[in-house]
Amino acid sequence: MTGMPAGAVDEGALRVLVPRVLAGLVRRGEDFGAAEDALQEAFIEALRTWPDHPPRDPQAWLAAVATRRLVDARRSEAARRRREDVVAAEPPPPPSDAVGDDTLFLLFCCCHPGLAPASQVALTLRAVGGLTTREIADGFFVPEATMAQRISRAKRALRGRSLDAPGDLAVVLRVLYLVYAAGHAGRVDLAAEAIRLARQLTLATDEPEARGLLALMLLNHARLPARFDADGRLVPLDRQDRGLWDTRQIAEGVRVLQSALALQRPGRHQIEAAIAALHDDAASADETDWPQILAWYDDLVALTDDPVRRDPAAVLGRAIAVGHVHGPAAGLRETDRLRQTLGDRHRWHAARGHLHERAGDLAAAAECYAEAARLATNVAERDHLIRRAAAVRALDR
Amino acid sequence: MPKYLLLKHYRGGPEPHRSVPPIDQWAPEDVEAHMAFQNHVSEMLERNGEYVDARALAPARTWVRYGGPDAAPVTTDGPHPETSDLIAGWWMIDVESHERALEIAAYASSEPGPGGEPLCEWIEVREVMWERPAGDAEAA
């Protein structure tokens, strides 16, 4: 790491150092929560002092300042413990080098299966992503105090737990997907943050599902510029201006997906990424390779026993593909099976509206879109569904 | 400055001034005009420095109460789910006066409906209780 230029702190470069320094502290045997607090203070100190006094070695500087804070904190903590007559436990020995990479090690800490998903997400963004509590709170539209509480509860929950056991990669992938799905509506682009973290993860593990998740995120994120028009209206996939799609992200997504599929250990994320890639690959909606998409959906639903109940979203996606390959009536029959599980969700009604519309039954389509609008939980989607209902009714007149 | 909630309702409130079908049955251009006006009101409030918050509520609702020790919460969707008052969403505003709140509410109610005619929807205006600024109590 070279020295920073005077006058400005590159926050992005600074944030990249956070997981490295933190992993070093935790491996050395420091308490995770205490180390994270100390590093956060060092981070703020860096933003304050580096513009005038750029360090020669930023990573060493952060580690040194954080260590000093830890020592200070331990002194006052030790004094408190002596007063309370509690025998302080020895810090656990530094874990063996079973986990090679700092990022992976920290992700396993933050995504500890003992934590609630909301805590895993918050802790990951702070300790691995290097985001401030304020930024994370903004991303999830909650007050800063609420997010601070979530983070400190998570750190308390981690205290005393062994952090050297290999973690559960499936949990890490789920957490990263949650971060991605939280989107980009706030001041912090959490989708881009999730992609950054997933990219780091793929550098740390060869697991194909990690690459599958990164590919899925890239291939969906690439369409973001076309997903809303200039007035903020939602534009569905088949009406998007494909010239606005981010071809660089698509190319990276396809490359990552191919390297995952080459390992021949398929999984949910790889399959979903393959479906996204087929959409991205079509020059127009009419040129979409629906038979191949349907084949991937067949693989996706086959991953789960009783997919209608346990993976209804996949069955619904497959029904749309069936509608394109075998006709809308066949697609509608497939959705019938989901009435029990998805009948109160807007997506089920929206999908049926789409199938009825393609079958030419505009009155039924309008009813479905209107019902979907009533059940929507997102303003942009609701407004879009109201527009679809009004549009097909107008055609029907 | 006092804060007010301007509440929009799916149903309930005084007898509608103008009876209109549900929005999904309007002409597409009327739907567009109506939605554009909603955004315009929020943007106007932001430009004026009067905007605090705006939210829409999904119509589905559940009433819930404590069910007693070792019992599940008791839920219902209401005694008269088809006729009772149902809030659709709100603007929260921070304005000079009650009069200004009424003025904004009336403007919001002028939103275009079918045929572009003002909808004249009833808007409920409620003052929000808030912390007094420090020193205000002594001054009063």
Largest sheet of chain B: 4 strands, antiparallel
Number of helices of chain A: 21
- SSE arrangement of chain A, N to C: HHHHHHHHHHHHHHHHHHHHH
User: Radius of gyration of chain A, rounded?
Assistant: 25 Å
Shape of chain B: flat
How far apart, in Å, are the first and last alpha carbons of chain B? 14 Å
The oligomeric state is heterodimer
What fraction, in percent, of the residue positions of chain B are helical?
25-40%
Structural class determined from secondary elements of chain B: alpha+beta
Considering residues with a beta carbon less than 8 A from a beta carbon on another chain, report the largest interface and each chain's count: A-B, 20 and 17 residues
| Strand proportion of chain A | under 5%
Count of helical segments of chain B? 3
Compute the number of strand runs of chain A. Answer: 0
How does the overall form of chain A come out from the CA principal axes? elongated
Helix percentage range of chain A: 55-70%
Poorly predicted runs of chain B are: none
How would you write the strand order of the largest sheet of chain B?
Answer: 2-5-1-6
What is the H/E order of chain B? Answer: EHEEEEHEH
Number of beta-strand segments of chain B: 6
Provide the structure class of chain A.
mainly alpha
Global mean pLDDT of chain B: 90
List the topology elements:
The complex is a heterodimer of chains A (397) and B (140).
Chain A (H helix, E strand, L loop, with lengths): L10 H17 L4 H18 L8 H27 L17 H9 L6 H11 L5 H8 L3 H15 L10 H13 L8 H15 L3 H14 L2 H4 L19 H15 L6 H14 L8 H13 L4 H4 L1 H15 L1 H9 L2 H4 L3 H14 L2 H14 L3 H18 L1
Helix pairs in contact in A: 1-2, 1-3, 1-4, 2-3, 5-7, 5-8, 6-7, 8-9, 8-10, 9-10, 10-12, 10-13, 12-13, 13-14, 14-16, 16-17, 17-19, 19-20, 20-21
Chain B lengths: L2 E9 L16 H21 L2 E6 L6 E3 L8 E3 L9 E9 L3 H12 L14 E5 L7 H4 L1
Antiparallel strand pairs in B: 1-5, 1-6, 2-5, 3-4
What labels would you give this structure?
heterodimer; A: 397 residues; mainly alpha; 68% helix; B: 140 residues; alpha+beta; four-stranded antiparallel beta sheet; two-stranded antiparallel ribbon; 6 strands
